Amino acid sequence: EFATIEFDLEGGVATLALNRPERLNSFNEQMHQEVREALSVVEQDQAVRALLITGNGRGFCAGQDLSDRSVAPGAEVPDLGSSIETWYNPLIRTLQRLPMPVIAAVNGVAAGAGANIALACDLVIAARSASFTQAFCKIGLVPDSGGTWQLPRLVGMARAKGLSMLGDKLSAEQAAAWGLIWQCVDDDALRSTATDLARHLATQPTRGLALIKQALNQSFDNDLDTQLDVERDLQREAGRTEDYREGVAAFMEKRAPQFKGR
Ligand code: T3D
């Protein structure tokens, strides 16, 4: 039913593949709209316990489709702030809010907003031939989609500035070595590694994982005292889940736990 993405639900795993390969899966409005619809299904369907995002073809995502942005001399330039407000910011907020692990399988170049959408996911796995580029500076723009927030946190200010002001391609291996992403794997192993990981996570205590995500996503903004309070509150909530009971019971009975995501 979608034209610019492929979306599939199977056994607790939702898979969203960006599917405009001839444009390196860059975003036009239709793709924004379809991604939004798919993520709203993910958000509302209690059966979904992990989300995998990837790209079809040789790219992961090249950010905004710039062919929608070329302006004839004298014509009015579109308001990019409104594009960010309408599309990119809500997308990043949704990824951060989803109460389940979100995995990005970066199959090729991730550029501009495409790089930062990947970095907004919880676990980023990239193919060895993939790369990350903060391409914005090359066309006079600022890293968006959370880039200026994520980069200093993930790799420190010096590297954040170098990446943002030079816009060079950072190889997947270097990205993993710097701690920008979780893992770099051989190209032919990417899809299976990412799918195995998503399937594994979909069998785990989903609410506990969602609370871990919530705690870590706010940790850089809190002092230790505040974060200790956050941990207390989230642990209280985790302790009330069925999966916690099951985890302890299974441990005591020396058997494998059967988590239900509740
Ligand atoms: O506007 C707003 O709403 C504000 C929000 C902005 C968010 C943003 O993401 S701004 C940043 C936009 N993205 C870029 O600036 C990246 C532009 N692309 C590139 O720099 C390079 O294409 C890549 C580094 C991504 C990949 O390089 P390479 O050498 O592997 O591939 P290529 O040959 O450059 O690209 C392949 C094709 O995809 C090519 O088309 P062709 O010549 O085969 O017909 C190229 O034009 C097309 N393509 C790549 N990126 C985009 C694109 N077409 C439209 N928009 C793109 N972003």
Automatic annotation (TrEMBL):
- Can you tell which superkingdom this protein's organism belongs to? Bacteria
Give a single Pfam family match. Answer: ECH_1
Q: What is its EC number?
A: 5.3.3.18
Q: Does the keyword Transmembrane helix apply?
A: no
NCBIfam families, per this entry? PaaB1
Which family is it part of?
Answer: Belongs to the enoyl-CoA hydratase/isomerase family.
The protein's name is: 2-(1,2-epoxy-1,2-dihydrophenyl)acetyl-CoA isomerase PaaG
Organism of derivation:
Alloalcanivorax xenomutans
What gene, per UniProt, encodes this protein?
Answer: paaG
